[in-house]
Amino acid sequence: MKKSCLLTDTLCRPSTASHYSAAEWDLLLRQARAANLLAQLGVRLEQCSEQMEIAHSVARHLRSARLIVKRQNNAIRWEVSLLQHALHDLAVPVVLLKGAAYVLADLPNSNGRLFQDIDILVPRPALKEVENRLRRWGWRSTHNNAYDQRYYRRWMHELPPMEHAQRRTVLDVHHSILPLTARLHPDPRKLIGNAVAAPGNEDIYLLSPEDMVLHSMTHLFHDGELENGLRDLVDMEILLQHFGKEAGFQTRLCERARLLELTRPLYYGLRYVERVFQAPVAEETRKTVSSWGPGWLLGGLMDFLFREALQPSHASCTTAATSLARWLLYLRSHYLRMPLRLLIPHLIHKALVKKGDNEIEIPKALRKIIPDADNR
Amino acid sequence: MKPLNLKQGKIAHLLRNDGVRIQIGPFAVSLRSRLRRVAEQIAFFYADYPRVAEDAFVDFHIQINNPTGLRHWIRPQAIFSFDGFAPFKPLPEDQAFAMFEWGLNWCIATTAHQYLIVHAAVVAKNGQAVILPGEPGAGKSTLCAALVSRGWRLLSDEMAMIDPGGLSITPVPRPIGLKNESIAIMKNYADGVQIGPPVTDTAKGTVAHMRPPAESVAHADSDAQPEHIIFPAYSAGADTQLERIEKAHGLTRIAEQSFNYHILGREGFETLTRLVSRCPAFDLRYSQLDSAIARIDALIT
Question: Which CATH class is domain A6-354?
């Protein structure tokens, strides 16, 4: 991609950082923090640590970020073990998705990645049973207004997010990877059918490598909230590189995309991973996917939109075009989610009903030193 | 590094443009703000602090401004942002400076995991540091303010930053936050105590900050070794009592006051184990500052 920023340049070629000035390091860390990629940056820089000396003031931020990821991953493993405990005797396959799956599979992207929620996929017929069981074990439904409950349960591919009453962890229970009303219909039974057992954990499953890559692409390019777009693209790059070590991976990926009706997300995924990170795509794969893209007019527009939207969410990288692109892609994702006869009433409802507060919750320990206005 | 000591007009200009860059303990902070109140108080509280060079690396890029929206015209608010990310809800504009202090606490406590960070004041005399953990209602800040106005060195009013390796404490001397009755008590407690304008109706009641001693700010780059842990507990009318407590008990109580014990994990536990082995821990019950200080003075050799 033509438009470049310090963060993407450095992620592609970490060794160039060896001659960065203090001001460049400053900007680099700001962009990485805003893009949720600080720990990932730390991982990449460490890989070429012999060629450069990182100033102590910079290194301590990178180390802290990696430490937080390490603790998060411990906490995720613990949380998954509790999930397994709650669900194992239902004899329902429970498939971990996204962040938690990367952690359990110990994939190389997991040591640089922060995320919020745990996502699981279960067969739709077992949904009620799983939800009831989770309730008994302390998870409770959020979004407790009639409209949201109905919206999720009737049209979406997941239950309203559940939160554990004591641990406050959030769990998304999916029965598919795209809404029921979406344009694309990847059959969740095929995904579950190909799932593999998580290493060292017989009751918890992960998507097969091909499906895992396709899901990450589908999530970003068809269902997208793009604030963490660059982070998600980094996932794809690492997963492609990691799984690509096995012969024939890209061929299998294409076959699987055809079977799951996910050829378009694969086209976009490979295109932008290649453009942003110069990741190698085999000639044969390129030939296969070339017919899966949009026409030249739409293709040109999508190139523009994604080039903008995949910038780090930092003031030095984002412009009015970035916000516009993200907004248009947000509309597009809704358009892809459901037909207009459902979408228009939904957007009107959302526009009229006041949005909930989006502020993060201040951790309990920190409230001692940070009074917030609500505590009065 | 040269001190920030600039006229208020110049500080206001910097705050509106590229930002004022201040070295606060081990952290380089850049602050931008269009609010007059912030310029006034930065000029008052941070005059002695070193200025960070324009092209240097900065740890925290902070902004405090009015949030956008109609509210601005009715009852102005201020919002804290850490490089574009706003972790808290806006507060009334007269709390803008306090918000900077609280927000900086948040930045440090959520990113500086090179230290084990404990909610505590730290003061030192003859190079021997005393940790005063801040259990609720302890009067930690008042006691800390009283100690530093009687010649103790201020390392920190709000957080003890302990090196997990050598246990040394990195100073981060900053304005001392005082609440309610403490403000009047400290005003009359010693000569030379300088207190900023009080702000009423905050979540903590009325708050005001006390200027840290210039001497402590000048020595912000030299670490100190912790020698004692004292859990202060203000109790109206009580006689001063200093009672030794058991190591294990001290460890769990100090762990409860840590912001990042859970992130450091085993390293955090081992650090605290070594800390309580090195430093005797005490409960201090007091109502009279002078007699409390005398007891603490007596611990120092």
Answer: alpha beta
The predicted pLDDT at position A358 comes to 41
Phi, psi (rounded to 5 degrees) for A120: -130, 155
Q: Are A267 and A293 in contact (CB under 8 A)?
A: yes
What residue spans define the domains of chain A?
Answer: 6-354
**Percent of chain A residues past pLDDT 90, beyond the cut:** 63
Give the pLDDT confidence score for residue A373 in this predicted structure.
Answer: 42
Q: B88–A359: do the CB atoms touch at under 8 Å?
A: yes
From residue A49, alpha-carbon distances to A39, A43, A58, A216, B123 in Å are 15, 10, 13, 30, 38
Asked if the model's pLDDT at residue A3 lies above 60, the reply is no
pLDDT greater at residue B89 or residue A367? B89
User: Which residue's entry shows tokens 């003075």?
Assistant: B297
Number of domains in chain B: 2
Same domain, B135 and B277: yes
Q: Where does a domain end: B85, B111, B137? A: B111
Amino acid (one-letter) located at B294: A
For the stretch A101-133, pLDDT in tens is 999 999 999 999 888 899 999 999 999 999 999
pLDDT at A152: 86
pLDDT at res. B203 = 82
Q: Inter-chain contact B102–A61, Cβ cutoff 8 Å?
A: no
Phi, psi of B201 (to 5 degrees): 65, 30
Chain B residues whose C-beta is within 8 A of a chain A C-beta are 28, 55-59, 61, 83-91, 102-103, 105-106, 109-114, 119, 134, 136, 158-159, 202-204, 258-259, 262-265
pLDDT of residue B7 exceeding 50, the answer is: yes
Say if the Cβ atoms of B89 and A374 lie within 8 Å: yes
Q: Within 10 Å of residue A327's Cβ, how many Cβ atoms?
A: 13
> A25: which chain B residues are within 8 Å (Cβ-Cβ)?
57
Tokens representing B78 are: 């201020």
Of residues A26, A57, A373, nearest to B203 (C-beta): A373
Both B97 and B172 in one domain: the answer is: no
B3 in a structural domain: no
One domain, residues B60 and B172 = no
A357: which chain B residues are within 8 Å (Cβ-Cβ)?
89
Q: Does A358 touch chain B (CB under 8 A)?
A: no
